[in-house]
Amino acid sequence: MTQQQPGPPAGYSAAQKWLHWLMAVLILGMIPMGFTMVGLPEGPDRNWVYELHKSVGMTVFVLAVIRVAVRVARGAPPLPAGMPGWQRAAANLSHAALYVLIVAVPVLGFIGTSMCCSPVKLFNTITVPIALPGGMETGKVVLAVHGIAVFAMAGILVAHVGGALMHAIVQRDGVFQRMLPGRD
User: Fold this and answer.
1) Which of 150, 108, 149, 148 is nearest to 132 (CA)?
2) Partners of 120 in the β-ladder
3) Taking the chain, what is the end-to-end CA distance rounded to the nearest angstrom?
4) Rg (Cα) of the chain, in Å, rounded?
């Protein structure tokens, strides 16, 4: 007797929805925080914002790992059957890119910081004593790549939000609503 494989889920799980929105809030907060911190003069205020940015970044990384695991285990609901091929391709590509970037951006930030500025302290309490070789110069290069990845993420997020709004306001096809908490 052969066992049938389950098909894609009918909707996103509550965990997927909450992880999506929690990470959205954190990431959207991290982008202006990053611009703010590099513009501040040297001193305690700048150091405080840097430490907060690093701590939220580590939190985003942990949530990203959980989110990827949940996505692999649970899957995602299918896109609407009538969706044009180019929209289907754009949705799949943008989601894949966002998943890569929600992991890569904090990893690059952590690696760069660990090369130049170890130890990293989680919310100024728990020391994460991973010092990587490379020093300040290599750390700056890695942090520059981190910054480029942030700009890439910001661009993809703009397209993602635009697509979500198009589905919510113009097409009204339920794609946006299926990610709202409390909606099943």
Assistant:
1) 108
2) 128
3) 33
4) 19
Cis amide bond preceding 32, omega within 30: no
Torsion angles phi and psi, residue 125, rounded to 5: -125, -60
DSSP character at residue 174:
S
Instruction: Say how many C-beta atoms besides its own lie within 10 A of residue 43's C-beta.
Output: 8
- Which residue from 135, 117, 141, 17 is spatially nearest to 57, judged by alpha carbons? 117
For the cut 70, the answer to whether the pLDDT of residue 4 exceeds it is: no
* Upstream peptide bond of 119 is cis (omega within 30 degrees of 0): yes
Which one, of 61, 63, 56, lies nearest residue 34 by Cα? 56
Please check whether residue 27 is in contact with residue 99, taking contact to mean a CB–CB distance below 8 angstroms. Answer: no
SS (H, E, C) 145-163: HHHHHHHHHHHHHHHHHHH
Between the alpha carbon of residue 90 and those of residues 24, 83, 115, the distances in Å are 19, 11, 36
Q: Let me know: does 101 contact 152? Beta carbons within 8 Å.
A: yes
Per-residue pLDDT tens over the stretch 12-71: 999 999 999 999 999 999 988 988 998 999 999 998 999 899 999 999 999 999 999 999
Closest CA to 157 of 10, 24, 15, 22: 24
